[in-house]
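Re: that chain you flagged

S.,

Sorry for the slow reply, it's been a week of failed gels. I finally had a moment to sit down with the sequence you sent. For the record, here it is as I used it:
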Amino acid sequence: MFFFGQDIGIDLGTATVIAYIKGKGIVLREPSVVAVDNNTGDVLAVGQEARRMLGRTPGNIVATRPLKDGVISDYTVTEKMLKYFINKIGGKSIFAPRIMICIPSQVTEVEKKAVIDAASQAGARKVYLIEEPIAAAIGAGIDISKPCGNMIVDIGGGTTDIAVISLGGSVVSSSIKVAGDKFDEAVVKYIKKKHNVIIGDRTAEELKVNIGCVYPKIQDVEMDIRGRDLSTGLPKTLTVSSSEMMEALIEPAMMIVDAVHSVLEKTPPELSADISDKGIYMTGGGALLDGLDKLLKEKTGINVMIAQDTVSCVALGTGKALDNLDSLDGKRKI
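Prediction finished late last night. Pasting the structure tokens below so you have them in one place:
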């Protein structure tokens, strides 16, 4: 049950929705996938159950991800998904919760309004927005209120958000639509081009997680996967090595490195000095890609640290920001 004044922090990610309740911590972690019946418009499954249906549904059922590149691409489905998760967290209650939602740092006013409207329609009493890099920094345990520079690289499913933070706000920030999904796409394209085999997104993700790397490994590792041979149209099993995965993933990885480079170029010199002393903090699920921290360190010459519990950093930061809701009240609402 919701208590009066119950506050919820939501990391509304392209790949995963993570929810935090004040006083309870993280209470929900589900894939942001919804299965809808096309004939009736009814939601058949949400989260983990819907994810299992991806690529395996009959014609009248569509399993979709209503968020693309960090923003809402299907408003109605997003609203239904949020309503489902809010009810799952707290059940029915006479008190609507206050909700704080993370958004990428470079979203437009229209995209912000879509998030607020979807959360309001889903049952929120009041909606607040917080930029992902700021939430990630708070979740990583960085004191962002001091007048010194901290650099955060938050690699999610749809976007990579890069920001230099000082005195509680972003001084320089950038958001690029290269993140976990783009890595998966790169793997699908590579396997198709090199082996003439088509694999699904889930298989690509398993390859990325298990043997993916963007920096040479000491020992090459291999993994067997199944796909459809384009020349025969029949199922085929093939073995993929980590060195092949590096070939597939290096291009999107370098796009992230270049984006970090361009943010560093725009950073005021005093803050640049702070960053070179303290290093760069990486958060988000994409930060776990093997060797990405080493590649970034090699290309920038700055120490790179991966935050503890990196996948939950943004949600944890949102949760901590909820403690200041009363002082923020009305300021973050668009």
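What I noticed first: The two ends are 28 Å apart (CA to CA).

Talk soon,
D.
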